[in-house]
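Bug #77: duplicate submission created two jobs. Keeping one. Sequence:
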Amino acid sequence: MMKRLIAVLLVAACSAQAETIDVPCGQTRGVEAGRKFTDGVLVKTGGGVLDLTGAVLGNAGLEIRDGSVRMAAGAAHTATGRFIRFTVTKTRPASKADHGGTGPQYSEFHLFKDGKPVPFPNGTKAIAGPVGTAEGPEKAIDGNVNTKYYNTQGVPLVLDLGRAVSFDAYSYATANDAIGRDPADWVVSVGEMRNGSIAWQDVGSISNYSAPKKRLAEIGTTFPVALCDVVPFDCPVTVCGQGRLVLVGVNETLENVRGCGLIVLEDSSVAFAPGTAFTGSVSGGNVTYR
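Kept job's structure:
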């Protein structure tokens, strides 16, 4: 009797955490930008279309029982993670005299929230690159533009903040010399520990940026976080037999999608991570299986 009562209470608690949005057939409903679904499960019912572009799913589950849920890349949002990775993939085109092609460098890396700097928590560690050298990655967070992180191989700046931190923009400062080492193309990612390793989610990317040529200076521009991973890695998504997940402008890995419904790709490319329990079909776009 006691076991049955406990089971009933557990079921009731789980049900209380679910939020159901019903969209009748033939209708489309959106949510306000920045709407957060961070607990429980969001259940989509009805034959219409629910547009979640701009919403923040966080670790909330999504269950599409009927109709379509549309999610598009590029919506501004707030990123949260314990780990931060800044990967520079190309530097400013420059001559040999300006040290073009000799690897990226920068003196500081910054996070922002609501237009204000987000300080790195005490104890933040640089955990990639030649830590402890004269130009190691820890120099990018020491608050001193007179020091820099420089690596000829372009090893990313990887930071362990010790706890999850939220930010909606980021920036960097130039180093002391060599304009040919200024970052021009990069990707910013946040990460969380999962099964003993860091699971990364891209939250920003820039191409062909031309930094001010002034040395030892903030570049004067902040770059907003964008929803690069439309389906967060820690958000379990179930696409039921009558459901459709529509992804627009997406280029990402789907780690936590299951069900037997339909995934529709519009101008999108997705890869299914190993062990993904999705048995439905995929229409359009490019699909790979890792």
